[in-house]
Amino acid sequence: MSRSRLKACSCIGQDRLRPRLSEWRAGVSERKRAAAEASLYPLFLKLNGAPALVVGAGRVARRKIEALLECGAQVTVVAPEAEAEIAMWAEARRVAWHKRPFTPGDATGQRLAIAATSDRAVNAAVAEAARTQGALVNAVDMPDLCDFYVPAVVRRPPLLVAVSTAGNAPALARRVREELEARFPADIGAFFADVGTQRETIKLRAPGKVALWGERIAACGAFEAALAGRTEEARRLVEAATREFIDTEDEQP
Question: pTM of the entire structure?
Answer without folding.
Answer: 0.74
